[in-house]
Amino acid sequence: MSENIFYTKDAVTSFERQAEMGQYSCVFWFCGLSGSGKTTVAKACEKQLHAHGFKSYLLDGDNLRHGLNSDLGFSDADRRENIRRAAETASLMAKAGLIVLVSAITPTHELQELARKIVSSENEFILCHVSTPLEVCKDRDPKGLYKKALAGEIKYFTGIDAPFDAPISPEVVLDTSEKSVDSCADEVMAKILDLQLDAEDAAEKLCKISVEAGEAIMEVYGSDDFNIETKDDRTPVTAADKRSNAVIVSALNRLWPEISVLAEESEDDITRLRRRWCFVVDPLDGTKEFISRNGEFTVNIALVFDGNPVIGVIYVPVTGELYKGINWRGVRRAERSRLAVGTDSTSEPPREIKVSDRTDELVVMQSRSFGSDRLDALLEKNANRISKTISSGSSLKGCRIADGRADIYYRFGLTHEWDTAAMQCIIEAAGGVFRQMHGQKMTYNRPDTLNRDGFYILNREENILE
After folding, report:
1. Which candidate, 59, 219, 281, 328, has a CA 20 to 30 Å from the CA of 125?
2. Residues 206-241: tens digit of each pLDDT
3. pLDDT grade, residue 344 (50/70/90)?
């Protein structure tokens, strides 16, 4: 390389590009014998990625040899240059924010490590060995290449008269003689989704952020002046709402700059609508309860993927109660713990919670601040099924159902996404039902953040009130 050539730093960082794409970019490198199913599986993955809204591209080894690498043969030097070019191209595409799939034989340990070294210098590299046995590949022979190689018409053909080194430490191993193409693609998709989110780690971080926000709220709660204002929608906002919002949004932007944030006390950035991930935040749910000093207010943080809440955290600053729900890739778990207020120590360790199995003598939650004639009529009509009603503020109503202390909550009237996202995640993680009044599931990160149809929460589907 000439000493007069200088590397220019990118004007837009990889984080910024990933934020725009709404995804974590990576390179998934499929290696294996000809006929092993590399490209077939990679194409199935590409279709799944596209269907789920991911931005991706497949670099196929044969296609590259028709264009970018058309000047290369199959000598050792040309094979090395073929892989180098493919890896450099994949690396650039990943830096642009794409999920890149590469299908290339990559026959030796040296070439496999070359691809890894080039890509992993700036991007995530996942090596997938499509380990279909040679005899199966020879029987398939979709391009007739093994037949030609065995007849001596093709020299130095991998698997016949040129070696293939099975990767030493591949991240994924697939054998298409034992698994269907779709099941192989599902396994790859699972790995890609794991890269997008470590749910356990993210949930723990959100718990810590909610506690920090709770501390900011309690500082105002203990003061003489809440600095109460009235917003355009005629709802109150206090200094505590604003302080909590600042703590949460700052932390989320620092830890996950690629993920959008929709927060009640922040200006709505509509670029979130182009992204698949979004945090939905109510920094102080139950402002009226805060003002009345009854302690029934919460901090709510949810992480939404494709409109569905996958992590929900609700913290109760006055009591130290902390609720966490995870609904991600088949994992559905809800927990409750309690912190010693004012410290980070746990006075009650996390325990899994679930909704009750009651079908009669039902306990109904009611809002302390928001009632309605429709609700009164519904409860009166079903009085024979109800043992008692309990009034509470904020998302505590949903939490009480999630941990089995109550069974039903109906909310007629308007709410916003930030009022329900974390609560819905925790309810569903605990095995409960959360639906809009017409029976459809609530989705999030919408253009209109208003929940216009009301909603209901049930411990069991059959307990819906008619």
Report:
1. 328
2. 999 999 999 999 999 999 889 988 888 788 899 999
3. low
Structure-token pair, residue 120: 């992993």
Q: For the chain, what are the domain ranges?
A: 14-196, 199-352, 362-463
Q: Strand, coil or helix: what is 447?
A: coil
- CA 406 to CA 458: how far, in whole Å? 9
DSSP label at residue 344: S
CB 99 within 8 A of CB 26: yes
CA distance 62 to 69: 9
What does the alpha-carbon distance between residue 320 and residue 462 come to, in Å, rounded to a whole number?
Answer: 33
Beta bridge partners of 278: 260, 304
Residue 2 has pLDDT above 70, yes or no: no
For domain 14-196, the CATH class is alpha beta
Nearest partner of 343 among 199, 189, 214, 187, judged by Cα: 214
Residue 427 and residue 433 in contact, taking contact as beta carbons nearer than 8 Å: yes
Tell me the H-state helices in 75-121: 76-95, 109-120
Per DSSP, the three-state class of 204 is: helix
In this prediction the pTM is 0.81
What CA–CA distance (Å, rounded) separates 247 from 244?
5
By C-alpha distance, which of 37, 44, 26, 24 is closest to 129?
37
How far is C-alpha 167 from the geometric centre of its chain's CA atoms? 30
- The 10s digit of each residue's pLDDT in 378-426 is 988 999 999 999 999 899 999 999 999 999 999 998 999 999 999 999 9
| Tokens found for residue 354 | 């679930």
Please tell me the predicted confidence (pLDDT) of residue 386. Answer: 92
CA dist 422 and 282 (Å) reads 9
As a CATH number, domain 199-352 is: 3.30.540.10
The answer to whether residues 281 and 301 touch, using CB atoms and an 8 Å cutoff, is: yes
How many whole angstroms separate alpha carbon 338 and alpha carbon 328? 24
Task: Determine which helix (DSSP H) or strand (DSSP E) holds 183, and give its type and residue range.
Answer: helix 181-196
pLDDT value at residue 342: 63
Please give the Cα distance from 251 to 272 (Å, whole number).
18
Q: What pLDDT score does 346 carry?
A: 67
Contact criterion met (CB below 8 Å) for 29 and 102: yes
CA 268 to chain centre: 21
Q: Which fold has domain 362-463?
A: D-Maltodextrin-Binding Protein; domain 2 (3.40.190)
Check whether 151 has a pLDDT greater than 80: yes
Q: In sequence order, what DSSP letters do the residues of 252-272 get, joined into one string?
A: HHHH-TTSEEEETTS---GGG
